[in-house]
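lol forgot to send this yesterday, sorry. struct tokens for the thing we talked abt
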């Protein structure tokens, strides 16, 4: 995880102008995106400002928004994802963004959203839907994290983006050991 930022101010309009240059090709060249344009490695996003910090430190919320909307067939730019999530920052971004903000944005984009905090039932509750999982890591110094997840493939396995390599919520939670988790499913 990147070092916590020292800056106390940020200019959202300036961020938007700078982030408009971050195309899928640029993200792939930096190693942040895969061949399909999905963001896989947040640690390679240090050039993307988010609140008073950089996205390698606190950008998982906008990364999850970007990925889940792409999974649902909507093309969103990095600049738009950052701008939408910057409206829900905790401590001006030092502590990332609010899950409530992500839920509101998904609804604004026309998604039917459901939520659950019953970790043991996440695979069943998610069903055939894509979405985002928000979890508080057991090592509190590592903070919380957002990760987008795909619909299950033909063999029933999911893909998690910007998270531990896992094919189910049980595998993800075995690797991450969260104290708390919130499932956010979305469908159009």
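and heres what i got for the seq, position by position
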């Amino acid at each position: 995880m990147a070092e916590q930022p020292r800056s106390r101010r940020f200019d959202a309009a300036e961020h938007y102008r700078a982030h408009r240059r971050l195309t899928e090709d640029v993200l792939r060249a930096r190693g942040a995106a895969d061949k399909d344009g999905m963001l896989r490695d947040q640690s390679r996003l240090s050039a993307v400002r988010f609140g008073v910090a950089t996205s390698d430190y606190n950008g998982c919320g906008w990364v999850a928004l970007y990925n889940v909307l792409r999974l649902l067939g909507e093309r969103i730019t990095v600049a738009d994802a950052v701008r939408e999530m910057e409206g829900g920052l905790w401590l001006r971004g030092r502590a990332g963004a609010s899950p409530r903000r992500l839920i509101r944005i998904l609804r604004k984009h026309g998604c039917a959203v459901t939520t659950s905090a019953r970790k043991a039932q996440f695979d069943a509750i998610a069903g055939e839907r894509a979405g985002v999982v928000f979890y508080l890591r057991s090592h509190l110094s590592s903070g919380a994290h957002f990760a987008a997840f795909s619909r299950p493939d033909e063999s029933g396995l999911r893909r998690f983006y910007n998270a531990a390599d896992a094919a189910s919520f049980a595998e993800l939670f075995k690797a991450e050991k969260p104290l708390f988790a919130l499932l956010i499913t979305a469908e159009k």
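The two ends are 34 Å apart (CA to CA). anyway ping me if u want another try
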